[in-house]
């Protein structure tokens, strides 16, 4: 095992430690750390080593796997390895479908207070975009009210999401009319951060959830699920598990939306495709 003599991180991740880490990460959250991702993992772990004071990757892995350190460190380890790319109105056709098809159709079925779930919410751009679209639907009388559950594996991104504070540039895709209603500007015009309005933040509940859990305890079935751009990190076995459990949480007549680069091909699910990467539970 390699051991550094000072915190200069010229040490590298050994094959043994990489394999043990990648095996644990896959078992814990379904993310495959292939050999091609070894340097990425090493780079991200350097920050964690600095935070914890370990002098080498070997010392860190010794602590994790042979000194029972995982019970205290696992949340931070997973925060380091998860990817959290997000934007407001990302893949906008899903929000168009939510506004123009899903919500009116649910309302016609008598569901005027739909429950929705952003199942890999990252720093919150997705659920807050959902909330803007649904708040507009309330204003227009399409629905009476709504609630959004937003979950993620990473505690770090959940803290950021709960705060609702973002760099102004990230809000550029949000239409100006929505920004005026749902985004608070700082009094200091030179500040670069803005905040989602309290009224909108109150409609979103954040919680930590691992999609590798045997089942998803979210309460009553929901009417819309967004699970976008997370399946691409899973192998087919894990994709099957995640999609199967998501469908169990979806009410009949509810909608599942996945990322544009993702597919349900070859997975037996109680859904039919009704638009590009949009599925209706039968």
From TrEMBL:
PANTHER family referenced in this protein's UniProt entry, alphabetically: CHEMOTAXIS PROTEIN METHYLTRANSFERASE
Q: Please report the name of this protein according to its UniProt entry.
A: Chemotaxis protein methyltransferase
**CheR-type methyltransferase domain segment(s):** 6-282
Give one Pfam family, short name only. Answer: CheR
This enzyme catalyses: L-glutamyl-[protein] + S-adenosyl-L-methionine = [protein]-L-glutamate 5-O-methyl ester + S-adenosyl-L-homocysteine
The source organism is Agrobacterium cavarae
- InterPro entries attached here? Bact_Chemotaxis_MeTrfase, Chemotaxis_MeTrfase_CheR, CheR_C, CheR_MeTrfase, CheR_N, CheR_N_sf, SAM-dependent_MTases_sf
Q: Which UniProt keyword terms apply here?
A: Methyltransferase, S-adenosyl-L-methionine, Transferase
- KW Transferase (keyword) present: yes
Task of the protein:
Methylation of the membrane-bound methyl-accepting chemotaxis proteins (MCP) to form gamma-glutamyl methyl ester residues in MCP.
